[in-house]
Amino acid sequence: MRLDHDTPISSRRTILRAGLAIPLTIGAASIFSPTVASAETPYEAIILKFHELTVGPDGGDLSHPVIQEKLEDIASTCEEFQALLIPGTERDRVFSDLPLVDIRLSAAISTTTDRLAKMADGWATPGSRLWHDTVVGEQIIAGLQTVHDLQYHVGQLPFDNWYTWEIGTPRQMMKAAVLIRSIMPAELWSSLSSAFLYFNPDPAYRRSGQKMTGSNLMLRCQNAIVAGALNESDEQIQLARDASVEALAPNTTGEGDGFYFDGSFIAHVDVPYTATYGRELLTSASTVVPLLNDSPWAYADDAITPLRAAIYRNFLPWISNMQYLPPTRGRSVATGTGNANWTLSTILLLAEGAPSDQAELWRSAVKGHLERCTIFSIFDRFLPEVRLALRVLTSDEIPARPEDLGPRLFPEMDRILSRGAGWCVSLATGSARTRGFETAVSSTENIKGWHQGSGARYLMLDHDENQHPHLFPTLDPYRIPGTTIDKQELPPSTYESGKTRDAFVGGVQTGGRREADGFYTEPLFASWVQALSSQESTMTAKLSWFFLGSRIVHLGADIRGGSGAPIESVIENRALTIGNQVLSINGTAIPAAGTTGWTATRDDVRTVHISDVVGIVMIGSSGQMNFLRDHRQGSFKDLSPLKGSATLHTNDFFTVWLDHGPTPDGADFAYLYLPLASVAETEAMAQDPGVVILANTAEVQAVQSPADRLVAAHFHQESEVRSGCTTIAAAKETCVMVRVRNQRRDVLDVSVSDPTQARDAFTVTITDPRLVGGSVLEADPTITASLAARSMVITVDASARDGSSHHLSVGL
């Protein structure tokens, strides 16, 4: 029985369990067979490990239907490429559709070696019907020879994309070389090895001399380690191991590529890229780390600890139901690669050698994703990973862990997310430090990303998995939900797009607990601010979000300037992917909104509701709002002309927006965003939103949640905010959150941050009669507090310049 992606979860579990009569060969202690342990040299051990990481060990029970299907897929893929082969030795290409002579784009070279490596999968995978097939082996050898003779050889001048020559082509070449090493002629390997060293003399540096970082560095090290093992070169392996330590280490400089302590991941100097380059780094690490384990070049524990911490801090938060959230996908949102099965299968590989407590946590988290997701499969990954996934899915000892609820801040990359039951909201903002989006001019990727960092908000729902995979080709790029933008028509964006001149972008959180290394987990409440300046016009705005459990408050203030085109704040723009959804305004369903092309402008709008998605409540007063239901179509090729698929996608959308007119002079808005609220719940919130807007001006944006005994404020200018008997005063560009909780007596929790990441120190003053007789119970090492009568002056050491929250608790 075939296990399709559309098979219901209950049926999938039955199918998975039915065929697993014998435990999988891959054991809990090691993913490698005893053959690896008996290798005569450390070089041979690395080669055998790489072989088994790629196609699995010999032997074991391969009868499970999922494994049988995978084996058939591997063989079928090999045969598909065999059918494209050009025979003869005087050919100008290996495959009929990929010329290798007189070409302008270098991708044909790496694509050719990728196909040869996939053919090597068919030849080398135990259980494949093409296992050690003589004809297939000869075809792979001849293909590698042709690639070498026509393009990848000593003396060749690289052209087009450096990645082809220094990472992409050698990566697949090394894979093929290991898989067919028993039949590869020594002369061919010698030629390929010489070419590899010609293009890659040092894994830490590009051939041009540019220093490598992040995933690119790790991939280069992987290639060099495999080549070094095949060459039996201690020096080559040692050089790669030493360089890879830097890729695994957290970034402590405060700028540039790599993992950050707060859970951020940056690539290309200033782009949030957890889901793309971060994923690639983790994937290559899941190969390199096991390759070097138990070898003369094994990593010290302190070199691996940050990588293991990053799995739960950097990667898992940005995955919902096996999908990566858009804010950390970079330009890949325009090519459609949001499937997180790479990362989840990689995590299962790394779990094999991890401490038991971490391994159990990771496996449980992965199992949760595998059981919840119905549109993607982990079974199209490499066979060893498929076998690990089967073991996790069919084990009664591994519980399926839900995603962590609550907000998470990532100030080093200007991103935030928050989860509730059945939903996840994520925000992408740009600043003077990080780009809100990336466009690659050379490959024409994401040429319509103009507003992807202007407060772009994405709502992921457990029951609406089809919302994001094909969203961007059909989404109006001028009306991304959550954004405030100048709607002037724009040309294709450029590589440097996405950064602004604004430093006041970041947030603050309260609640949770501080771990031994200072990392805060499980915060209860959080807020985020973006001082926004348009790159294309004089439009500016001040935007704030307050995450209060199931309620998200969005404020906009001091919206002004522009090109003369309408300035819009997009309340919602939702693809209707879960059936016949109903739009309601002020609690009344609008039948006409079910017709494509319907548009309306309504005055006195208090609430908007989209069935099974969200409720929206205007706070303070009703106002004029614009509505549209339209049918949109497009392809990823429209967004990435050279790399995007031409397949046409279609979606109907409900769009809701505020029109501030051309060049507004201080426009504002305030609304509650309520994921999965019913119509009745939305209307009840309109009567009592449970939130008081204390200020929404050019100086301060602040809210109070009486039920949570919480006040949160973003100070754009030096000012103060009053709530009842409490006054908060702060310098410009400071975030403050104050909450009272009861712990046998009232405790005042104060959290503050400097989102500008530019000051060494700052102060916040809180005045409250309850402070009389108060005492400091807990404080982060970065905080000192001076209490005098009714006042408390908090002095913060912000010299780390990382935008983090600093916490203080005072007994009242």
What would you note in describing this structure?
The protein is an alpha+beta fold and 812 residues long. The chain has four domains: 1-48 and 232-403, Glycosyltransferase; 61-199, Glycosyltransferase (Alpha/alpha barrel); 420-687, Beta-galactosidase, Chain A, domain 5; 693-811, Chondroitinase Ac, Chain A, domain 3, CATH 2.60.220.10. It contains 17 helices and 37 strands. The strands form eight sheets. A nine-stranded antiparallel β-sheet has the order 11-14-15-16-25-22-21-18-19. Helix 7 (162-179) packs across helix 9 and helix 13 (341-351) crosses helix 15. The longest helix has 19 residues, at 274-292. The protein is globular and about 85 Å long. The N and C termini lie far apart (66 Å). Mean pLDDT is 93; it is low at 1-29.
Low-confidence stretches: 1-29
Can you give the helix content as a percent range?
Answer: 25-40%
How many domain modules? 4
Strand order of the largest sheet: 11-14-15-16-25-22-21-18-19
Mean pLDDT: 93
Count the E strands: 37
- By CATH, the topology of the largest domain is Beta-galactosidase, Chain A, domain 5
Number of helical segments with 4 or more residues:
17
Radius of gyration: 28 Å
* Largest sheet features: 9 strands, antiparallel
